[in-house]
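Hello, quick one for you while I still have it in my head. Could you read through the record and tell me how the tokens relate to the sequence? No rush at all, and the record is pasted right below.
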Amino acid sequence: VSAVEAKLATLEGAEEALLFASGMAAVTTVLLSLLSSGTHLVITDDAYRRTRQFCLNFLKRFAIEATVVPMGDYAGLEAAIRPTTRLIVSESPTNPYLRVLDLPRLADIGRRHQVKTLIDSTFGTPINQRPLNQGIDLVIHSATKYLGGHNDLLAGVVCGNGALMAHLRQQLWMLGAVCDPHNAFLLGRGLKTLALRVNRQNENGLRVA
């Protein structure tokens, strides 16, 4: 597990990566770790359905509020930020409509308001984009998809820098959504061909377009 985390951190240009049992385990652990009763998050409307449901329905039980803003409406996103806002959650490219965010602009909004930014980069992969290099605080992947690449594993990963990742590792161990060693082995195998697969998929997609 540690060896694959190190590879994923290198791919994303992060100081540290954390493996989880699934992509949703990564999402829910991060949200539960960074938010507390009375806080608020902003999420874009074009996002994975289960992530949106967790933010709007499940977190409500803990008095954590969520505001949904249209994807690409940066003025609306900034206007939705409150004194209690702790996190901006989005995807790029989005699932399922493949809309692409202006990541530096989002990172700038977060920095100016002292709000952490989280991007689900599953559809981008670190071959096509590295959100951390553009100022984003945390990057999530469902490793079940492109990173694994063989349709035979479930895993998630969170990548980031500094003390924030050390905090998330402690929360992971407490909440228990750990990745088992065999899954990590399968993911490490998939990473060996990630660049080859994604570059060919890019070429094929461009030809179809």
Notes: DSSP finds nine helices and seven strands in the chain. Residues 119 and 139 are 5 Å apart (CA to CA). The first helix runs from residue 2 to 12. The longest strand covers residues 85-91.
